[in-house]
Task: inverse folding
């Protein structure tokens, strides 16, 4: 068993030898096996691990929220202030939730009831657990809303969730979780769905709230930047077991276990490496590219107009990677989709050599389809589940007149190139992991022999160790095929490592554009500066690359 | 670069059909529907009399009535009317059995034709943006007219008969299929794998048939069974109202229409075809419900 580090005082939560069994037919016997850790008051313990490591199951076990029948606690205990929640009755658990333990989730939109006012949803906790009169409840709700720094609580208390931004919704969730001053707050990836600037605010808020209220926090995350920002202690999990635990500095700076070392090393650094300027031929040029959504029509004269992209200009040379970074809604994906001609830009030019493909009808566009290929974010939806990966890869070449045998041969060659066994061509996508599917998508794109590869958040859905491998693959094929790469990402760390030049977008406009080293060293625009300031764990990456 | 092995072979999901056949309502509804189908096919063997044969001496008889009749060679034989006779002396039992043929033919052909036409229109509406509005407003207009009223109007446009009835029932059903297919197409066309297929230059018809169409199969099978049940009902209603298939043809609706006048004294004229109709519709609806539970992911039980 792992050595258990205890805080100085009596722990709020003490997990001992907890084991939860998976239903038969899963890839392993237990979802979590024999894990032990403590969370003291005023302490933030980060549980980190890649997907499938059992982080969320641990949280559910503590809350007593494990799906019945499928996941069963078969051993160990989770003592919340001395009381074992794995053995508590449903009724007792209900009492404990809200009063002694609160929980916030990843997706603040789905965690809130869309048809109920947010004030009411916070007050619900009071209604269930206290017998305060309505007026008093309202007062308490306003108080906590002020405490989580929501603007204008008197107005916002009667708002519906859809009227709030993602960050505000997460603040509401935190308010509801903390209103009764629970001893333990369980936060399951609470900032993963948020933009980096909002994430920084929410992290600061959680830290402030817990230290003021003496709350112990179990913070589940996959992001080492966040860990280095917020954690007091860190528990590293892999395949249901605790690999290593210790203080933040011990785990992040002096990891003992090979797995932790590998994870920490895989986190891309925020310091861009030196890159020689690329001198190749211009592969693609975008001039004054704009996309406007919503059109005033005869029936709808007041239609809302969204300028998703405005006057975007860039050139990408062969062998060069241009990064477009920005938060959600900045228009970076719109630009990618315009360039790939999945949508038609409203205005501007997209030049491949001298041909403007921006407004070509589908029939005339077809010959140029080969030149631009795209890899999408979600590896689970990028491949047709009903077709073998081989069929998916050969589809494009066959469309352009290649014989089946030749296409098949090329597909085998490409599978080897992206690091997969060529014999796997006749398997279906569900038989591959996320990283492997992303490799298959890259192979499919390469089969067309493109000059420009667009990677639209292509590594964002992947675990950090897999992400590192796919990034390496992208870099290798760029060199090997002298590809121009348009790399769309929200992740500054990834952008720092892979891009030659970076364009920062906000509200559809490119606010800053320059070489990666320059932009990172000396950001000019206010927004770029704010973005860099908000990046979690900035010193973490720096230290690591210096060491 | 090092070759990474393919993922460990995940156990193949159990075939869809084996889960479908495990569902109790599929089993129950399916076996009754199959039973009806067998009866319809074997009608000439199972029927005791020619369903159109009129026997003036055995009119309005109760179930179980026996009579002496001459057969084709002129010999006198004893005949038992299991379910009685109608006001023209026709054998209800044989007529109900032959009626199953018409009902099932109408139900199945309507389902197939409506699904086929609806699928094509729905794919066009879902994929061709500028046609979407026009097609869907037309479909909305069709749906605004009550199904039976529209069918009556359509039948009255042409001579009564099986084809006219089928067409009259198909047309009001099409908008339902179109809506369903369009919604599936609209959600699938946004899938990254469809967009990938666009960027590798897949021509639109191939794209639709290869990547979009397979996703409509399951919901269409379900919708098809419901259309089948509803078509059987509408056909019976049209026949009962006397505007469907000509009255001499044995259909459940015609038998009931025929028996309506003496319904108080001779309820069997309506009872037996009514039972057959109810059973057929129930069985097919149960089959559809079961199929929806197993095929439609929205209703699927979570792991």
Result:
């Amino acid at each position: 068993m792992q050595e258990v580090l205890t805080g100085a005082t009596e722990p709020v939560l003490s997990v001992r030898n907890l084991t939860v069994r998976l239903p038969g037919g899963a890839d392993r016997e237990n979802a979590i096996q024999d894990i032990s850790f403590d969370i003291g008051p005023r302490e933030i313990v980060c549980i980190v691990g890649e997907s499938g490591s059992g982080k969320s199951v641990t949280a559910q076990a503590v809350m007593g929220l494990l799906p019945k029948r499928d996941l069963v606690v078969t051993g160990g205990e989770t003592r919340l202030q001395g009381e074992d929640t794995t053995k508590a009755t449903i009724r007792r658990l209900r009492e404990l939730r809200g009063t002694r333990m609160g929980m916030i989730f990843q997706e603040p939109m789905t965690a809130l009831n869309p048809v109920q006012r947010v004030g009411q949803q916070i007050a619900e906790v009071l209604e269930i657990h206290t017998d305060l009169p309505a007026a008093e409840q309202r007062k308490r709700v306003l108080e906590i809303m002020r405490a989580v720094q929501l603007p204008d609580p008197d107005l916002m208390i009667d708002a519906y969730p859809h009227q709030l931004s993602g960050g505000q919704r997460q603040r509401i969730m935190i308010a509801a979780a903390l209103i009764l001053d629970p001893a333990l707050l369980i936060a399951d990836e609470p900032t993963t769905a948020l933009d980096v600037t909002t994430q920084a605010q929410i992290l600061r808020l959680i830290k402030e709230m817990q230290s003021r209220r003496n709350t112990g926090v179990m913070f589940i995350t996959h992001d080492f930047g966040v860990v280095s920002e917020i954690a007091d202690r860190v528990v590293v999990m892999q395949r249901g077991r605790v690999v290593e635990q210790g203080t933040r500095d011990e785990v992040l700076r002096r990891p003992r276990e090979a797995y932790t070392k590998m994870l920490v090393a895989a986190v891309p650094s925020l310091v861009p490496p030196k890159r020689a300027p690329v001198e190749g031929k211009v592969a693609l040029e975008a001039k004054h590219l704009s996309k406007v959504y919503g059109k005033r029509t005869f029936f709808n004269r007041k239609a809302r107009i969204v300028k998703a992209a405005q006057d975007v200009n860039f050139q990408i040379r062969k062998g060069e990677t241009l990064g477009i970074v920005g938060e959600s809604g900045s228009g970076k994906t719109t630009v990618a989709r315009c360039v790939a001609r999945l949508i038609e830009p409203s205005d501007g030019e997209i030049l491949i050599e001298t041909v403007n493909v921006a407004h070509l009808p589908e029939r005339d566009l077809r010959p140029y389809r080969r030149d631009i290929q795209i890899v999408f974010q979600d590896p689970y939806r990028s491949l047709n589940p009903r077709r073998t990966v081989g069929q998916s890869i050969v589809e494009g070449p066959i469309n352009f007149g290649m014989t089946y045998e030749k296409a098949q041969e090329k597909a085998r060659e490409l599978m080897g190139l992206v690091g997969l066994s060529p014999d796997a061509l006749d398997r279906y996508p569900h038989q591959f992991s996320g990283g492997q599917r992303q490799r298959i998508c890259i192979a499919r794109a390469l089969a067309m022999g493109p000059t420009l590869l667009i990677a639209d958040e292509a590594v964002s859905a992947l675990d950090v160790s897999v992400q590192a491998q796919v990034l390496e693959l992208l870099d290798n094929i760029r060199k090997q095929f002298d590809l121009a790469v348009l790399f769309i990402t929200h992740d500054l760390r990834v952008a720092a490592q892979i891009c030659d030049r970076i364009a920062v977008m906000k509200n559809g406009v490119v606010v800053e554009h320059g070489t990666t080293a320059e932009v990172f060293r000396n950001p000019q625009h206010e927004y770029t500066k704010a973005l860099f300031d908000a990046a979690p764990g900035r010193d973490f990456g720096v230290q690591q690359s210096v060491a | 670069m090092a070759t990474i092995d393919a993922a460990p072979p995940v156990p193949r999901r159990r075939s869809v059909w084996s889960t479908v056949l495990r569902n109790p309502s599929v089993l129950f509804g399916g076996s009754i529907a199959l039973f009806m189908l067998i009866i319809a096919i074997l009608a000439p063997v199972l029927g005791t009399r020619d369903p159109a044969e009129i026997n003036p001496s055995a009119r309005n008889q109760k179930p179980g009535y026996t009579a002496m009749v001459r057969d084709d060679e002129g010999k006198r034989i004893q005949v038992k009317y299991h379910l009685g006779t109608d006001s023209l002396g026709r054998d209800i039992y044989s007529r109900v059995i032959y009626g199953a043929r018409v009902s099932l033919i109408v139900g199945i052909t309507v389902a197939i034709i409506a699904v086929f036409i609806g699928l094509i229109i729905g794919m066009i509406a879902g994929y061709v943006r500028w046609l979407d509005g026009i097609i869907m407003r037309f479909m909305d207009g069709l749906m605004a007219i009550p199904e039976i009223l529209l069918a009556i109007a359509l039948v009255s446009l042409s001579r009564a008969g099986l084809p006219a009835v089928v067409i009259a029932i198909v047309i009001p059903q099409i908008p339902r299929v179109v809506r369903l297919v369009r919604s599936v197409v609209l959600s699938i066309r946004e899938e990254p794998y469809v967009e990938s297929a666009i960027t590798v230059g897949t021509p639109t018809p191939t794209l639709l048939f290869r990547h979009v169409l397979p996703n409509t199969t399951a919901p269409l099978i379900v919708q098809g069974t419901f259309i089948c049940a509803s078509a059987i009902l509408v056909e019976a209603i049209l026949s009962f109202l006397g505007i469907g298939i000509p009255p001499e043809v044995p259909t459940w609706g015609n038998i009931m229409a025929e028996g309506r006048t003496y319904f108080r004294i001779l309820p069997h004229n309506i009872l037996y075809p009514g039972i057959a109709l109810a059973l057929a519709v129930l069985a097919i609806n149960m089959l559809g419900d079961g199929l929806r539970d197993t095929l439609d992911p929205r209703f699927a039980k979570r792991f």
Q: What stands out?
A: The longest strand of chain B covers residues 65-70. Confidence is low (pLDDT under 50) at residues 1-11 of chain B. The longest helix of chain B spans residues 92-127. The radius of gyration of chain B is 24 Å.
